[in-house]
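Input for the complex:
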Amino acid sequence: MIPGLKSLFLRTESESIRVHWLRVQIAVTMLVLTVCSLAFITNDVLLVRRTLRTSLESVIKVLSANLVSPLVFGDRLEATKVLSSLTALPDVAEAKILDSKNEIFASFVAQGADRTLEPGSTLLASETIFHEGVAVGYIEMKMSLRMLRSEYRRYTIIVLGVLFLGLAIAFFLSFHTQRRISAPLTRLLMLTRQISDSRDYSLRLGKAAEEGAPVELVSLSHEFNKMLDQIQIRDAQLEKKVHERTRQLEDAQATLVASSRMSAIGEMAGGMAHEINNPLQIIHGKVYQLRMQAESGRLDIARLSRDTEIIESTVLRIARIIKGLRSFAREGAGDPFEPASVKSLIEETLELCAARLKHHGVDVRVSGDIDENLTVECRPTQIGQVLLNLLNNAYDAIDSLPEKWVKIEVEDRGADVRILVTDSGSGIPESVRKRIMEPFFTTKEVGKGTGLGLSISRGIMERHQGSLVIDPDRPNTCFVITIPRQHIESVTAAA
Amino acid sequence: MKRAFTICLLLFAVSARGQGMAELEAAFLYQFSLFTQFADESEALTVQIHDRPDLLLAMQTLAARKKWHGKEIRVSGGGNGTKAQMVFLSAPTDAELEVLVKQYEGCKCLIVTSREGFGRRGAVVNFYQEGDRLRFEINRGTSDKHQLKLSSQILRLARIVE
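Predicted:
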């Protein structure tokens, strides 16, 4: 196929089916019409040419028959008269009769023949005139192809008209036909886009999309809708599975968190036993002294009052420790966000572990005076858990070091509050730092840590719209907790 | 080829000034016979020439060389030619010629004369001069009476008289 012609039928990458369909239809129509027209013209021209020749030959035969007697009787006048009858045939341009001596016997030239007798514009025919088997003359005739040219022109106009009309009809029909094909496809495309954008698999191609569409496209619509049904069913099943798995994971996570918490409590247990044991000893001593005084009858009222105060304050201290323990043992995830004093949060946490740290020679320092009124909206139990986890980690990290201290600093930055927990360790290597917040990652010896403490703590801080990060620029190991002063509910709800 | 040659000669004779009238008339007579359908079929064309020895000679010369539709041409002079198919009549005077023509009334022959006015006086074909050209007139009524069918070609060339 000719490259130009081929390109008419091939679809370009960016071309729509609609345009391609129109182009192909019109190209095919044009091609067919052109070929048919050319065949028609060629056939007709040949026919006209043949007709002209036949006509010319017929005329020549008639003339020959009529010219026998003038030739035989040497009647030039009659011969000329016979030839003059050719004026009735406008296409005969010229005729001449030669006698048997090859001399012009008679001739005829049509009016305006000079103009029509251009080279190649005439049809020539000749015949020898016989009489009783003897050649008595010769006739030669030229016929103008004016009629043929006129036919050419007429055919060209007809062909152009047919082509134009055919083109218009083809365009009209193609336009209507392509609408039947492309419109359902366009609707399908629009729906696909809509589904893709909204991820709403409940959308369907309506019955209107099938109106006037070919059977294949109606089937395609049905299949497309069927596919959407199946996707919806699959999605529902997947969602159900995801819910189930999520619930299982949440359960597992809750278990792990509880384990982690219990592990932390276990780690504190030694310190707390000491912390509780000491006040109990005090209470026990004071009660013993008071009982001795009562038995000896020398009960000093002033001393009684002082000792009971000591006992009361000691009991309260124990109660605080127990409250802290209870509070820590609670998950706290369902607690409401409430304003909590940063100072209290730190003190209550230290209450739980300070004794243990001190018992192991760890110097716990709270940097500067923390403003009593500095509050953050949080779940206090969870923030306490984070702080306790950091202090426990600090203790584990520095326990073997000669210099053991833990420093707590508070920075009020207006919109949020930063609590920095720094220990005497020399920082965390980058390779560990990158993974330290990952679940189950731990550098502690086997059985000592769950590897969940920091990942849970980070999760808690993220739910508080805050953060838990390591400050790598400090010479010592420093964890930084950031808590927004105000908790934005909608963000939490969305989270 | 012989015929062609003869015709050529005859045509040349027609056009050539000073050519013998007898030869020309003989050629015409021969052509008349070719353009005429006679009432009776015969095995030869019989031609009778009256009182024109030169024409008789010319006709005999022509007959010796040519055929009539493939048949022989028999030429004779004088006598009653009612049995002939073609008769050329000539007489010294018009009265004599008229008498002669009347003798052939009712016969199925082509009567040819060469006298002014005889086209209307019993001849089927009558020669006449028009300038230096020999022409002829035909009487359709007479030809019908003699049961002759003349070709339209010859009729077209002739002057028709009634």
